[in-house]
Amino acid sequence: MTCSRELLERYLDGELDASTCAAVEQHLVDCGECSTACSDLREQRAAIHAAAPYFAAPPGFDRYVRAAIRGAAAPSSGRPLRPTPWRALALAASLLLAVSITWNLAQLHHRPAESDLSEAVLSNHVRSLLDDRLVDVPSSDRHTVKPWFAGRLDYSPLVKDLQSEGFILIGWRLEYLDGRRVAALVYRRRQHVINLYTWPAGPSPDRDQRVTHNGYNAIHWTGGGMVYWAVSDVAMADLERLHQLYEQ
Amino acid sequence: MLPHLDSAHNLARWITRNDQDAQDVVQEAYLRALRFFDSFQGGDGKAWLLEIVRNTSLSMLRRRGRVAGTEPFDEAAHSGGSQSSNPEQALADRESTRVLRRCIELLPVEFREVLVMRELEEMSYREIGAATGLAQGTVMSRLSRARKRLEECARKNAREARQ
Q1: Residues of B in Cβ contact (< 8 Å) with A52
Q2: What's the gap in Å between the CA of A225 and the closest CA on chain B?
Q3: What are the pLDDT digits (tens) for B34-53?
Q4: Probe site for chain B from A54, A103, A124 (most B CB atoms < 10 A)
Q5: Is A137 helix (H, G, I), strand (E, B) or coil?
Q6: What is the reported pTM?
Q7: Are B6 and B30 spatial neighbours (Cβ–Cβ below 8 Å)?
């Protein structure tokens, strides 16, 4: 291996594959010059962390931004904290967005109760991706799922290990949907995240459905006395496969 | 808590270098995010939001003609007047930390933003690429140049402080 500062930086940035990484580490043992350069870079990183403060949002700023968002969405409700020149634009756009969601969902659903629920499930999925809280428990061990939910839910969700089928269980979390606490199981399919929500079916469960909105697919079915909603940006066929595997 | 609010504020603050501007940028960025939500196709929410924060910050700087980042190194404002005092190690450390911080603030914005995303936000080259619209190779070379510039800046100012 020839000496390369670029390689050292990529090594320290964690951007090398395992074999190149091993080669660099071997080279660092053999080459004093690169070894010194590498410790200089490490020192510089430590110095940057010491010198550059992390400017977290100030206390109360969260509420302030939320108020601005509400002010933009509904200018009649309360005085905005500050005049915002883009308010009119944002208002128009958020109304458009609301209209387009409603319209798209209306195209797909006939019963209002269903469309409310599918909308809630879709937005829960999107929020789980935006939040840092995709999973409460990161784990691929399905045997630890039931004990974790035992104190948190009044039912026990069915959890399948589908690794051999290309659905990797990466964890789970507790959610609130359809007026109750529900289990959200998180699978990964290639680079895509799938949320599988499940809870006990009511006396008259909804019919199965397929929903597509903004590049997200959702399918809903009822089986074994449980309601299932699977949501992801994978192809509908992948979700159908997950459905089949859970029905087996 | 709004998703990624600290990251959004941190990036905006480092690009604008001003508390009030950072808050204005973040507020506007979340409103834009709401507006552009239709264009979010899933995937990396943080990179997507930081792309909006970055673009909002840069257009604010552009409006104010402050994008170049060419202010001279203001020794008096950042040395704390410690040049003539006894150069004990603790003082020297504090001094070099102050110098380095100023050097980061003085990096041209195209270097500063990738450095902050990598070192403070701990984003991968791929994520930084997504947030800046740069190819991963360009992210890598900008980071590398940012680090070299910091080295030079810190060395030069440490030397001047000793004189």
Answers
A1: 14, 100-101, 104, 116, 119-120
A2: 31
A3: 777 666 655 677 888 899 99
A4: A54
A5: strand
A6: 0.56
A7: no
CA B57 to the chain's CA centroid: 11
ipTM of the complex: 0.86
Q: Which of A51, A28, A15, A55 is nearest to B144 (CA)?
A: A15
Structure tokens at B69: 């980042």
Domain range B5-162, CATH class: mainly alpha
Question: For chain A, what are the domain ranges?
Answer: 5-51, 64-108, 111-247
Q: Which helix (H) or strand (E) holds A182?
A: strand A180-189
Residue A228 to residues A70, A220, A247, B136, Cα–Cα distance (Å): 33, 6, 11, 39
Rg of chain B over Cα atoms, rounded to whole angstroms, equals 18
Looking only at the bridges linking them, the beta strands covering A180-189 and A216-223 are: unpaired
Measured distance between the N- and C-terminal CA atoms of chain B, rounded to whole angstroms: 49
pLDDT tens per residue, range B7-18: 999 999 999 999
User: Which chain B residue has its CA at the smallest distance from A96's CA?
Assistant: B35
Token output for A197: 């929500």
> What is the token pair recorded at B37?
């939500």
How many other CB atoms are found less than 10 A from the CB of residue B99? 24
- Distance CA(B32)–CA(A75), nearest Å, equals 16
**Chain A residues within an 8 Å CB radius of B119:** 45, 48-49, 52
Name the residue with higher pLDDT: B111 or A129. Answer: B111
- Ordered by start, the domain boundaries in chain B are 5-162
| Domain spanning A111-247, CATH class | alpha beta
Beta-carbon separation of B34 and A97 below 8 A: yes
